[in-house]
Protein backbone atom coordinates (compact mmCIF):
# COMPACT_ATOMS: atom_id res chain seq x y z
CA UNK A 1 0.00 0.00 0.00
CA UNK A 2 1.41 3.44 -0.84
CA UNK A 3 1.84 5.86 2.04
CA UNK A 4 -0.79 8.14 0.52
CA UNK A 5 -3.35 5.36 0.81
CA UNK A 6 -2.41 4.21 4.28
CA UNK A 7 -2.51 7.74 5.65
CA UNK A 8 -5.84 8.56 4.09
CA UNK A 9 -7.79 5.54 5.24
CA UNK A 10 -9.69 5.59 8.53
CA UNK A 11 -10.91 2.18 9.66
CA UNK A 12 -14.22 2.03 11.48
CA UNK A 13 -14.49 1.10 15.15
CA UNK A 14 -17.22 -1.44 14.47
CA UNK A 15 -14.71 -3.79 12.89
CA UNK A 16 -11.96 -5.24 15.00
CA UNK A 17 -9.24 -7.60 13.81
CA UNK A 18 -11.11 -7.99 10.55
CA UNK A 19 -14.09 -9.47 12.44
CA UNK A 20 -17.67 -8.51 12.05
CA UNK A 21 -19.30 -7.44 15.32
CA UNK A 22 -22.85 -8.37 16.33
CA UNK A 23 -25.71 -7.86 13.85
CA UNK A 24 -27.02 -4.96 15.88
CA UNK A 25 -23.69 -3.17 16.14
CA UNK A 26 -23.02 -3.87 12.48
CA UNK A 27 -26.30 -2.24 11.56
CA UNK A 28 -25.42 0.75 13.72
CA UNK A 29 -21.98 0.89 12.12
CA UNK A 30 -23.48 0.64 8.63
CA UNK A 31 -25.78 3.54 9.43
CA UNK A 32 -22.96 5.58 10.93
CA UNK A 33 -20.72 4.96 7.94
CA UNK A 34 -23.02 6.29 5.28
CA UNK A 35 -23.54 9.54 7.09
CA UNK A 36 -20.91 12.00 6.00
CA UNK A 37 -20.60 14.91 8.40
CA UNK A 38 -21.23 18.13 6.51
CA UNK A 39 -19.89 21.52 7.64
CA UNK A 40 -21.72 24.78 6.94
CA UNK A 41 -24.54 25.99 4.72
CA UNK A 42 -24.61 28.56 1.87
CA UNK A 43 -24.93 28.13 -1.86
CA UNK A 44 -26.55 29.24 -5.05
CA UNK A 45 -27.61 26.93 -7.79
CA UNK A 46 -29.25 27.35 -11.13
CA UNK A 47 -31.34 24.58 -12.60
CA UNK A 48 -29.48 23.60 -15.79
CA UNK A 49 -30.94 24.96 -18.95
CA UNK A 50 -33.41 22.59 -20.52
CA UNK A 51 -33.10 21.75 -24.15
CA UNK A 52 -35.78 22.71 -26.64
CA UNK A 53 -36.41 19.22 -27.98
CA UNK A 54 -37.22 16.69 -25.28
CA UNK A 55 -34.25 15.90 -23.09
CA UNK A 56 -31.21 15.35 -25.32
CA UNK A 57 -29.20 16.98 -22.55
CA UNK A 58 -28.87 13.57 -20.92
CA UNK A 59 -28.23 11.75 -24.18
CA UNK A 60 -25.16 13.89 -24.68
CA UNK A 61 -23.73 12.35 -21.56
CA UNK A 62 -24.50 8.86 -22.79
CA UNK A 63 -22.85 9.51 -26.12
CA UNK A 64 -19.79 10.86 -24.41
CA UNK A 65 -19.51 7.84 -22.15
CA UNK A 66 -20.07 5.32 -24.93
CA UNK A 67 -17.52 7.07 -27.11
CA UNK A 68 -14.97 7.08 -24.36
CA UNK A 69 -15.61 3.43 -23.58
CA UNK A 70 -15.07 2.36 -27.13
CA UNK A 71 -11.73 4.18 -27.36
CA UNK A 72 -8.45 3.36 -25.69
CA UNK A 73 -9.20 2.03 -22.17
CA UNK A 74 -6.46 4.02 -20.48
CA UNK A 75 -7.87 7.30 -21.77
CA UNK A 76 -11.05 6.66 -19.76
CA UNK A 77 -9.30 6.44 -16.45
CA UNK A 78 -7.92 9.10 -14.27
CA UNK A 79 -6.53 6.10 -12.41
CA UNK A 80 -3.74 4.93 -14.71
CA UNK A 81 -1.86 2.73 -12.30
CA UNK A 82 -3.16 -0.15 -10.28
CA UNK A 83 -3.98 1.11 -6.78
CA UNK A 84 -1.88 -0.77 -4.23
CA UNK A 85 -4.24 -1.99 -1.52
CA UNK A 86 -3.55 -4.89 0.79
CA UNK A 87 -5.94 -7.75 -0.15
CA UNK A 88 -7.26 -8.00 3.43
CA UNK A 89 -7.90 -4.29 3.52
CA UNK A 90 -9.88 -4.53 0.30
CA UNK A 91 -11.77 -7.54 1.54
CA UNK A 92 -12.86 -5.59 4.60
CA UNK A 93 -13.71 -2.53 2.52
CA UNK A 94 -16.01 -4.55 0.25
CA UNK A 95 -17.49 -6.38 3.24
CA UNK A 96 -18.51 -3.05 4.72
CA UNK A 97 -20.07 -2.05 1.42
CA UNK A 98 -21.95 -5.33 1.34
CA UNK A 99 -23.31 -4.74 4.85
CA UNK A 100 -24.48 -1.25 4.01
CA UNK A 101 -26.17 -2.41 0.82
CA UNK A 102 -27.85 -5.31 2.64
CA UNK A 103 -29.05 -2.99 5.40
CA UNK A 104 -30.34 -0.14 3.27
CA UNK A 105 -31.46 -1.70 0.02
CA UNK A 106 -32.90 -5.15 0.46
CA UNK A 107 -34.27 -5.30 -3.09
CA UNK A 108 -31.03 -4.27 -4.78
CA UNK A 109 -29.03 -6.46 -2.44
CA UNK A 110 -31.15 -9.45 -3.41
CA UNK A 111 -30.37 -8.66 -7.05
CA UNK A 112 -26.64 -8.47 -6.42
CA UNK A 113 -26.64 -11.94 -4.83
CA UNK A 114 -27.37 -13.31 -8.28
CA UNK A 115 -24.23 -11.74 -9.78
CA UNK A 116 -20.67 -12.95 -10.16
CA UNK A 117 -18.52 -12.11 -7.13
CA UNK A 118 -16.50 -9.41 -8.83
CA UNK A 119 -19.59 -7.68 -10.17
CA UNK A 120 -21.47 -7.83 -6.90
CA UNK A 121 -18.56 -6.25 -5.07
CA UNK A 122 -18.41 -3.47 -7.65
CA UNK A 123 -22.15 -2.80 -7.36
CA UNK A 124 -21.92 -2.71 -3.56
CA UNK A 125 -19.12 -0.13 -3.79
CA UNK A 126 -21.13 1.96 -6.25
CA UNK A 127 -24.24 1.58 -4.13
CA UNK A 128 -22.43 2.85 -1.05
CA UNK A 129 -21.07 5.88 -2.84
CA UNK A 130 -24.58 6.68 -4.17
CA UNK A 131 -26.16 6.13 -0.78
CA UNK A 132 -23.64 8.39 0.95
CA UNK A 133 -24.24 11.04 -1.69
CA UNK A 134 -27.98 10.79 -1.15
CA UNK A 135 -27.54 10.94 2.64
CA UNK A 136 -25.88 14.33 2.29
CA UNK A 137 -29.23 15.83 1.37
CA UNK A 138 -31.64 13.23 2.79
CA UNK A 139 -29.87 11.96 5.89
CA UNK A 140 -29.90 13.13 9.50
CA UNK A 141 -27.28 15.81 8.79
CA UNK A 142 -29.21 17.27 5.88
CA UNK A 143 -29.81 20.48 7.83
CA UNK A 144 -26.09 21.23 7.55
CA UNK A 145 -26.07 20.77 3.79
CA UNK A 146 -24.33 23.49 1.81
CA UNK A 147 -22.68 23.99 -1.54
CA UNK A 148 -19.34 23.72 0.29
CA UNK A 149 -20.25 20.22 1.48
CA UNK A 150 -21.14 19.13 -2.03
CA UNK A 151 -17.99 20.77 -3.43
CA UNK A 152 -15.90 18.85 -0.92
CA UNK A 153 -17.74 15.63 -1.80
CA UNK A 154 -16.95 16.26 -5.45
CA UNK A 155 -13.28 16.82 -4.62
CA UNK A 156 -13.31 13.49 -2.83
CA UNK A 157 -14.86 11.92 -5.91
CA UNK A 158 -11.96 13.17 -8.03
CA UNK A 159 -9.55 11.77 -5.47
CA UNK A 160 -11.28 8.39 -5.70
CA UNK A 161 -10.84 8.44 -9.47
CA UNK A 162 -7.23 9.55 -9.06
CA UNK A 163 -6.40 6.62 -6.79
CA UNK A 164 -6.40 8.66 -3.56
CA UNK A 165 -9.43 7.48 -1.57
CA UNK A 166 -10.21 9.32 1.63
CA UNK A 167 -11.62 6.39 3.60
CA UNK A 168 -12.15 2.67 3.36
CA UNK A 169 -15.50 2.88 1.56
CA UNK A 170 -14.00 5.24 -1.00
CA UNK A 171 -11.13 2.76 -1.44
CA UNK A 172 -13.57 0.04 -2.50
CA UNK A 173 -14.77 2.35 -5.25
CA UNK A 174 -11.21 3.19 -6.32
CA UNK A 175 -10.58 -0.53 -6.68
CA UNK A 176 -13.82 -0.97 -8.63
CA UNK A 177 -12.84 1.87 -10.96
CA UNK A 178 -9.60 0.10 -11.66
CA UNK A 179 -11.39 -3.17 -12.45
CA UNK A 180 -14.31 -1.83 -14.52
CA UNK A 181 -14.41 0.94 -17.15
CA UNK A 182 -16.38 3.43 -15.08
CA UNK A 183 -16.64 7.03 -16.13
CA UNK A 184 -16.67 9.89 -13.63
CA UNK A 185 -19.42 11.81 -15.47
CA UNK A 186 -22.50 10.07 -14.02
CA UNK A 187 -20.98 10.32 -10.54
CA UNK A 188 -20.49 14.06 -10.96
CA UNK A 189 -23.99 14.37 -12.36
CA UNK A 190 -25.44 12.66 -9.29
CA UNK A 191 -23.78 15.28 -7.10
CA UNK A 192 -25.32 17.90 -9.40
CA UNK A 193 -28.73 16.28 -8.73
CA UNK A 194 -28.16 16.72 -5.01
CA UNK A 195 -27.33 20.40 -5.62
CA UNK A 196 -30.61 20.65 -7.48
CA UNK A 197 -32.49 18.98 -4.62
CA UNK A 198 -31.23 21.56 -2.13
CA UNK A 199 -32.37 24.45 -4.32
CA UNK A 200 -35.42 23.34 -6.19
CA UNK A 201 -38.45 22.32 -4.13
CA UNK A 202 -40.97 22.29 -6.96
CA UNK A 203 -40.98 20.98 -10.54
CA UNK A 204 -43.04 23.06 -12.93
CA UNK A 205 -43.37 20.36 -15.56
CA UNK A 206 -42.21 16.88 -16.46
CA UNK A 207 -39.13 18.13 -18.30
CA UNK A 208 -37.81 19.62 -15.07
CA UNK A 209 -38.69 16.51 -13.12
CA UNK A 210 -37.09 14.27 -15.73
CA UNK A 211 -33.86 16.18 -15.47
CA UNK A 212 -33.85 15.71 -11.69
CA UNK A 213 -34.60 11.99 -12.13
CA UNK A 214 -31.73 11.70 -14.57
CA UNK A 215 -29.32 13.30 -12.13
CA UNK A 216 -30.23 11.22 -9.11
CA UNK A 217 -31.20 7.87 -10.66
CA UNK A 218 -30.59 7.73 -14.43
CA UNK A 219 -26.95 8.20 -13.50
CA UNK A 220 -27.06 4.96 -11.47
CA UNK A 221 -28.03 3.09 -14.63
CA UNK A 222 -25.08 4.64 -16.48
CA UNK A 223 -22.73 3.69 -13.65
CA UNK A 224 -24.02 0.11 -13.61
CA UNK A 225 -23.70 -0.86 -17.29
CA UNK A 226 -19.88 -1.03 -17.37
CA UNK A 227 -20.08 -3.44 -14.43
CA UNK A 228 -22.96 -5.53 -15.80
CA UNK A 229 -21.36 -5.70 -19.25
CA UNK A 230 -23.03 -5.80 -22.66
CA UNK A 231 -23.62 -9.19 -24.36
CA UNK A 232 -20.95 -9.62 -27.06
CA UNK A 233 -23.64 -10.96 -29.40
CA UNK A 234 -25.97 -8.00 -28.83
CA UNK A 235 -27.18 -6.67 -32.17
CA UNK A 236 -28.01 -3.19 -30.85
CA UNK A 237 -25.85 -0.16 -30.21
CA UNK A 238 -24.21 0.47 -26.87
CA UNK A 239 -25.87 3.87 -26.94
CA UNK A 240 -29.34 2.26 -26.93
CA UNK A 241 -28.39 0.00 -24.06
CA UNK A 242 -27.13 2.94 -22.03
CA UNK A 243 -30.38 4.72 -22.77
CA UNK A 244 -32.31 1.72 -21.43
CA UNK A 245 -30.20 1.73 -18.30
CA UNK A 246 -30.92 5.40 -17.89
CA UNK A 247 -34.64 4.70 -18.35
CA UNK A 248 -34.57 2.05 -15.66
CA UNK A 249 -33.20 4.69 -13.32
CA UNK A 250 -35.95 7.10 -14.40
CA UNK A 251 -38.65 4.43 -13.94
CA UNK A 252 -37.27 3.60 -10.50
CA UNK A 253 -37.09 7.21 -9.42
CA UNK A 254 -40.59 8.05 -10.69
CA UNK A 255 -41.87 5.01 -8.79
CA UNK A 256 -39.95 6.06 -5.70
CA UNK A 257 -41.50 9.52 -5.94
CA UNK A 258 -45.03 8.12 -6.34
CA UNK A 259 -44.56 5.75 -3.41
CA UNK A 260 -43.22 8.52 -1.16
CA UNK A 261 -45.59 11.42 -1.96
CA UNK A 262 -47.04 11.45 1.58
CA UNK A 263 -43.67 11.07 3.27
CA UNK A 264 -41.98 13.73 1.13
CA UNK A 265 -44.81 16.18 1.76
CA UNK A 266 -44.03 16.01 5.49
CA UNK A 267 -40.69 17.60 4.56
CA UNK A 268 -42.48 20.18 2.43
CA UNK A 269 -41.35 18.43 -0.77
CA UNK A 270 -43.52 17.77 -3.80
CA UNK A 271 -41.70 15.93 -6.58
CA UNK A 272 -44.65 16.02 -8.99
CA UNK A 273 -45.12 18.13 -12.12
CA UNK A 274 -47.09 21.19 -11.01
CA UNK A 275 -48.68 21.73 -14.43
CA UNK A 276 -50.04 18.18 -14.47
CA UNK A 277 -51.44 18.51 -10.95
CA UNK A 278 -53.26 21.63 -12.15
CA UNK A 279 -54.69 19.73 -15.13
CA UNK A 280 -56.51 17.54 -12.61
CA UNK A 281 -57.61 20.50 -10.53
CA UNK A 282 -55.00 19.72 -7.88
CA UNK A 283 -52.31 21.69 -6.10
CA UNK A 284 -49.87 21.27 -3.21
CA UNK A 285 -52.62 21.94 -0.66
CA UNK A 286 -54.46 18.79 -1.77
CA UNK A 287 -51.34 16.79 -1.08
CA UNK A 288 -50.76 18.34 2.32
CA UNK A 289 -54.42 17.73 3.29
CA UNK A 290 -53.99 14.01 2.44
CA UNK A 291 -57.44 13.54 0.89
CA UNK A 292 -57.59 10.92 -1.85
CA UNK A 293 -60.36 11.95 -4.25
CA UNK A 294 -61.21 10.98 -7.84
CA UNK A 295 -59.06 13.80 -9.25
CA UNK A 296 -56.09 12.42 -7.36
CA UNK A 297 -56.79 8.88 -8.56
CA UNK A 298 -56.93 10.00 -12.20
CA UNK A 299 -53.76 12.02 -11.78
CA UNK A 300 -52.04 9.01 -10.25
CA UNK A 301 -53.15 6.74 -13.11
CA UNK A 302 -51.38 9.03 -15.54
CA UNK A 303 -48.22 9.12 -13.44
CA UNK A 304 -48.18 5.33 -13.08
CA UNK A 305 -48.59 4.90 -16.84
CA UNK A 306 -45.57 7.09 -17.39
CA UNK A 307 -43.42 5.21 -14.89
CA UNK A 308 -44.40 1.93 -16.57
CA UNK A 309 -43.42 3.38 -19.93
CA UNK A 310 -39.86 3.84 -18.67
CA UNK A 311 -39.75 0.33 -17.24
CA UNK A 312 -40.86 -1.00 -20.62
CA UNK A 313 -38.07 0.91 -22.34
CA UNK A 314 -35.61 -0.54 -19.86
CA UNK A 315 -36.76 -4.11 -20.57
CA UNK A 316 -35.34 -3.95 -24.05
CA UNK A 317 -31.86 -3.07 -22.79
CA UNK A 318 -31.95 -5.55 -19.89
CA UNK A 319 -31.99 -8.37 -22.43
CA UNK A 320 -28.90 -6.99 -24.17
CA UNK A 321 -26.70 -7.17 -21.08
CA UNK A 322 -24.14 -9.85 -20.54
CA UNK A 323 -26.07 -13.05 -19.88
CA UNK A 324 -24.78 -13.38 -16.30
CA UNK A 325 -26.09 -9.91 -15.41
CA UNK A 326 -29.57 -10.17 -16.84
CA UNK A 327 -31.22 -12.02 -14.00
CA UNK A 328 -30.34 -9.47 -11.28
CA UNK A 329 -31.36 -6.57 -13.49
CA UNK A 330 -34.64 -8.23 -14.49
CA UNK A 331 -35.27 -9.04 -10.83
CA UNK A 332 -34.78 -5.50 -9.67
CA UNK A 333 -36.82 -4.18 -12.59
CA UNK A 334 -39.78 -6.48 -11.88
CA UNK A 335 -39.55 -5.97 -8.12
CA UNK A 336 -39.41 -2.20 -8.26
CA UNK A 337 -42.22 -2.09 -10.84
CA UNK A 338 -44.41 -4.06 -8.43
CA UNK A 339 -44.50 -0.98 -6.19
CA UNK A 340 -46.72 0.61 -8.86
CA UNK A 341 -49.11 -2.36 -8.62
CA UNK A 342 -49.12 -1.92 -4.84
CA UNK A 343 -50.12 1.75 -5.21
CA UNK A 344 -53.03 0.64 -7.39
CA UNK A 345 -53.97 -2.02 -4.84
CA UNK A 346 -54.09 0.75 -2.21
CA UNK A 347 -56.65 2.49 -4.43
CA UNK A 348 -54.05 5.19 -5.19
CA UNK A 349 -53.73 6.23 -1.57
CA UNK A 350 -50.07 7.13 -1.44
CA UNK A 351 -50.83 10.11 0.77
CA UNK A 352 -51.49 8.17 3.96
CA UNK A 353 -50.14 4.72 3.01
CA UNK A 354 -46.79 3.47 1.86
CA UNK A 355 -47.03 0.95 -0.99
CA UNK A 356 -45.30 -2.23 0.00
CA UNK A 357 -44.39 -5.44 -1.83
CA UNK A 358 -44.52 -8.45 0.47
CA UNK A 359 -41.80 -11.05 0.80
CA UNK A 360 -43.77 -13.82 -0.95
CA UNK A 361 -44.49 -11.62 -3.95
CA UNK A 362 -40.83 -10.68 -4.05
CA UNK A 363 -39.70 -14.29 -4.01
CA UNK A 364 -42.22 -15.25 -6.70
CA UNK A 365 -40.71 -12.59 -8.94
CA UNK A 366 -37.31 -14.30 -9.01
CA UNK A 367 -38.24 -17.30 -11.23
CA UNK A 368 -40.15 -14.98 -13.56
CA UNK A 369 -37.10 -12.72 -13.79
CA UNK A 370 -34.97 -15.78 -14.45
CA UNK A 371 -37.10 -16.86 -17.38
CA UNK A 372 -37.10 -13.32 -18.82
CA UNK A 373 -33.33 -13.24 -18.44
CA UNK A 374 -32.96 -16.43 -20.46
CA UNK A 375 -34.79 -15.10 -23.50
CA UNK A 376 -32.62 -14.21 -26.45
CA UNK A 377 -31.55 -10.66 -27.16
CA UNK A 378 -34.02 -9.03 -29.51
CA UNK A 379 -33.14 -6.18 -31.85
CA UNK A 380 -36.22 -4.08 -31.17
CA UNK A 381 -34.47 -1.05 -29.73
CA UNK A 382 -35.15 2.23 -31.36
CA UNK A 383 -32.54 4.36 -29.65
CA UNK A 384 -33.58 7.44 -27.73
CA UNK A 385 -37.26 7.89 -27.03
CA UNK A 386 -39.12 10.45 -25.07
CA UNK A 387 -42.62 10.29 -23.71
CA UNK A 388 -44.28 13.66 -23.81
CA UNK A 389 -47.58 14.15 -22.03
C1 LIG B 1 -28.90 -4.85 -9.15
C2 LIG B 1 -29.03 -3.40 -9.28
C3 LIG B 1 -30.27 -2.88 -9.89
C4 LIG B 1 -28.04 -2.63 -8.84
C5 LIG B 1 -28.00 -1.16 -8.76
C6 LIG B 1 -27.72 -0.81 -7.33
C7 LIG B 1 -27.28 0.61 -7.11
C8 LIG B 1 -25.91 1.00 -7.47
C9 LIG B 1 -28.16 1.45 -6.52
C10 LIG B 1 -27.88 2.87 -6.14
C11 LIG B 1 -29.14 3.46 -5.53
C12 LIG B 1 -28.92 4.77 -4.81
C13 LIG B 1 -28.57 4.76 -3.39
C14 LIG B 1 -29.05 5.94 -5.50
C15 LIG B 1 -28.93 7.29 -4.87
C16 LIG B 1 -30.14 8.18 -5.20
C17 LIG B 1 -31.40 7.42 -4.86
C18 LIG B 1 -31.73 7.20 -3.44
C19 LIG B 1 -32.16 6.94 -5.87
C20 LIG B 1 -33.24 5.97 -5.65
C21 LIG B 1 -33.07 4.59 -5.49
C22 LIG B 1 -33.96 3.80 -4.66
O1 LIG B 1 -33.50 3.83 -3.35
P1 LIG B 1 -34.46 3.79 -2.10
O2 LIG B 1 -35.75 3.09 -2.39
O3 LIG B 1 -33.62 3.25 -1.02
O4 LIG B 1 -34.75 5.33 -1.96
P2 LIG B 1 -34.89 6.27 -0.72
O5 LIG B 1 -33.77 7.25 -0.74
O6 LIG B 1 -34.87 5.42 0.50
O7 LIG B 1 -36.20 6.96 -0.95
C23 LIG B 1 -33.58 5.12 -6.70
C24 LIG B 1 -35.03 5.01 -6.96
C25 LIG B 1 -32.75 5.04 -7.97
C26 LIG B 1 -32.34 3.61 -8.28
C27 LIG B 1 -31.87 3.48 -9.69
C28 LIG B 1 -31.26 2.36 -10.12
C29 LIG B 1 -30.97 1.24 -9.21
C30 LIG B 1 -30.84 2.26 -11.56
C31 LIG B 1 -30.95 0.84 -12.04
C32 LIG B 1 -30.38 0.65 -13.41
C33 LIG B 1 -29.50 -0.34 -13.72
C34 LIG B 1 -28.98 -1.27 -12.71
C35 LIG B 1 -29.06 -0.48 -15.14
C36 LIG B 1 -29.48 -1.81 -15.74
C37 LIG B 1 -29.19 -1.85 -17.15
C38 LIG B 1 -30.08 -1.93 -18.16
C39 LIG B 1 -29.58 -1.95 -19.56
C40 LIG B 1 -31.54 -1.99 -17.99
MN1 LIG C 1 -33.59 9.47 -1.02
From TrEMBL:
Q: Which Gene3D superfamilies match?
A: Farnesyl Diphosphate Synthase
Which SUPFAM superfamilies does UniProt cross-reference here? Terpenoid synthases
| InterPro entries noted in UniProt | Isoprenoid_synthase_dom_sf, Squ/phyt_synthse, Squalene/phytoene_synthase_CS, Trans_IPPS_bact-type, Trans_IPPS_HH
EC number(s) in its UniProt entry?
2.5.1.32
Supply the enzyme class, top level: transferase
Keyword Transferase belongs to the record = yes
What the entry lists under Pfam families is as follows: SQS_PSY (PF00494)
Q: Transmembrane stretches, by residue range?
A: none
Q: Source organism's superkingdom?
A: Eukaryota
Instruction: Report keywords, A-Z.
Output: Carotenoid biosynthesis, Isoprene biosynthesis, Transferase
Q: What is the name attached to this protein's record?
A: 15-cis-phytoene synthase
Organism whose genome encodes this protein: Vitis vinifera
Amino acid sequence: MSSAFSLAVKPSVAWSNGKLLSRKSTRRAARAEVIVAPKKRTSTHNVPELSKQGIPHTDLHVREIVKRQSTDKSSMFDVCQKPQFHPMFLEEAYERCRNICAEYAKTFYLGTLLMTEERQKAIWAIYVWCRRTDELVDGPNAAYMSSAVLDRWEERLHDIFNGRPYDMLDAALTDTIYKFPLDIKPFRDMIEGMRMDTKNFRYENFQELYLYCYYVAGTVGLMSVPVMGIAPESPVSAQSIYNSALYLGIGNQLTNILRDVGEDSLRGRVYLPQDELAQFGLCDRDIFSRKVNDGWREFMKQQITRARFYFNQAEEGASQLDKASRWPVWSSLLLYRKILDAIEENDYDNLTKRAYVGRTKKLLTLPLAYSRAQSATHPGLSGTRFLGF
